[in-house]
Structure formats: structure tokens, C-alpha cells
Amino acid sequence: MTPEDWEHLQRIVQTGQSDEATAAFIIDSPWLPNWFDKSIFDYYADPECWFQANLAAIQNFPKAMFLPGFWAEYGMCSEPASFGARCSFYEDEFPFAHPVPDALNSLSQPDPRTDGLTPFILQRLESMRPRIEAAGHHIRFAIARGPLNIASFLMGSSEFLMALCMEPEKVQRLLDTITRFLVDWLQLQKERIDSIDGIFILDDIVGFIGEDDFQKFAKPRITQMFSAFDASLRFFHNDAHGLVCAPHLADMGVNLFNFSCDHTIEEMLQLTGNSVTLLGNIPPRDVLAQGTPEDVTRSVRELRQSLPDNKRVLYSCGGGMPPGVSTENINAFLNALSE
Question: What are phi and psi for residue 88, nearest 5 degrees?
């Protein structure tokens, strides 16, 4: 992000005030490679491809903020690989982290400095940092997927959700191990890249559990992650069912939230007590990716008309930028927002 964008984002999040409607999108490997006319595999394997794809998005859409900005990652394999998950990579499909046998009983805490893919993620950021900064941008976020998300890959989603009920003490121990690793990983990013002043955590599995399980398994650990270091921006993504976590976000330290298009911004403002800036929320797949530019324009206009002002809102889609979003549809979004 440029210093100007970072200051603008800070002002919106910290004060809730914005004189103008601001567009911001989460972008990473589900969208960037194919939009840039490269394969997903090349995006992961070739640092130059990764850098140029991110730079091209910024240069093609100067009216939009892209979050977290120059995100180094290997999809959903990024953190599970550190725990020994076998990871499969394909030419133009999303990578997959396979469950670890007996994960509930056998896992120990890895070291993000040496284990799995995290050393390569950090090396990419450090090696590309001079070129990122020469282009006028800075690395601002330490990033990790959340403990429930990672546990669901290490065990399998159904197996993990069943274990919450059947073997809760073992799940607690597993989540504690994962959380300690994630806190270490966030702190390592901050230690090695001093421009970082934000924490970005993604955990959709939070949206698959009820209030009691959220309070017991999710809230204390995600709160712990957001306390990994003193960050001015604490950004949480859950584009599954978001109603269970919304009333607790401020208590967890969250001040920026990206959520599902199934919930309205007005509903989320009420549930969060108007204390958290919201990033959303036109339908990502059905409108932004599969709709026409006219559909996008209509959806953005309807979203703006539903809100009295721009307070506590960054205009986006309800989730990350999905695969297949065209340049024309992004421009339609930005043009409709500037009307």
C-alpha cells in the first residue's frame, strides 16, 4: 500500500469517518494469476510473476485499495504445510493440503522460521521488499489463517467439527498448539519487516459453529492472535456465516471486518455496535464475477442507497476477490462508486 492509502485506511478504521466512498478488495491467488494471464502454478513458483501480477493490479485500478497488498502465500497450504500436511500443487487449480493422519493426537508445534512453506513466504517478502518500496508501496500486514481454519485442513472439516462435540479436550490442545505457532508466525513477520503495522487473520470455520463453541474454541484464540503485537489495524475475514462472531469483534480486538454478502451492512453495523469498520458486500461470485458490468453497477448503486453515509464502510464484495472477475466489472464497480 502507498503511504497515502495507508493513512486513508487508518483514518477510516480509527475514526469511522470518510468524506468519500472508498473501494477496497482482498486479492490473492484465486483471482490474480488468471486475471494476469498466468497460471496459478507460475504465480506461486515464479517471484517475478508474483510481483508483476500484484503491481499490474495496483496500476490498472488506481482508485481501489488492494488488501493486504503484495500478499505472499501458497493458498490454503501456507500454514498446514508447517505441520506436515502433504500439499498438492496443480498447473491451474488451487493447491490442496491433505489431512495429517491422527492429527488430533500427534501434532507438535512447528517453527515458522524453518518448517513448511512459511520460510519461503517470508523470503519472498524480504527479497522483494526493495522493489515493492521502489514502486511506492509498503508491506503493512502480518498475515495468517486462523486456528479453526488450519485445524479443519489438518483433520478434515467434518472430522474437526465432529471432534468439537466428541473430543473437546483434545481439540482444545490441538487449537492451543496451532495458535502458539500462529502467534509466533505473526511476530516473526513483524520482527523481520518493520513496516508492518497490521494483523490480518482469515478463518471461515468460525462461521460453521454456534455461540457456545465460538466462545469456547474460537474467541480466546483469535483474540490471542490479534494480541501478537501492538498493531493499529486488526483485520478479520470470515465470509461464512458471520452473525455468531459479529457481536464479539470489538472484544477480540478487531477493527476491520470482511464478511459474507448473505448479511447486510446495516445488520452488521448494528451487531458490532457501530464500533468496527466493515468491508463489503456485493455478491462476489454471482455479481462481481459472473454478472455483467450493468449488474455490478446496479448492485453497487443499491448498496450505496441502502446506507445513510460512508461511515464505518469500505465498499467491496462479501469476501475476497473471486476467480474470473474481469477488468470491465472492476471498472464498473469503481465508476458506480464514484457517481
Answer: -110, 130
**Residue 257: partners with Cβ closer than 8 Å, 6 or more residues away:** 235, 236, 237, 238, 242, 246, 249, 268, 272, 276, 277, 278, 279
User: Which three cell numbers mark 248?
Assistant: 464479539
Look at strands 96-97 and 87-88 and give their pairing.
Answer: antiparallel
Q: Which domains does the chain have, with CATH numbers?
A: 3-315 (3.20.20.210)
d(CA 173, CA 187): 21
The number of CA neighbours under 13 Å toward the Cβ of 81 is 22
Give the list of residues 6+ apart from residue 12 with CB closer than 8 angstroms, or none: 18, 22, 277, 312, 314
How far apart, in Å, do the first and last CA atoms of the chain sit? 25
Are the C-beta atoms of 58 and 18 separated by less than 8 Å? no
Q: Return the C-alpha cell found at 108.
A: 507438535
Q: Cα(89)–Cα(82) distance, rounded to whole angstroms?
A: 16
- Which secondary-structure segment (H or E) carries 202? strand 198-202
Predicted structure pTM score: 0.97
Three-state SS at 139: coil
Q: What is the pLDDT of residues 142-175, one digit of tens each?
A: 999 999 999 999 999 999 999 999 999 999 999 9
Spatial distance between the Cα atoms of 11 and 14, rounded to a whole number of angstroms: 5
Nearest to 116 by CA among 74, 159, 81, 68: 81
DSSP string computed for 63-124? TEEEESSS---BTBTTTGGGGT--EE--SSS--EEPPPTTHHHH-----TTTSTTHHHHHHH
Report the pLDDT value the prediction gives residue 20, as an integer from 0 to 100.
86
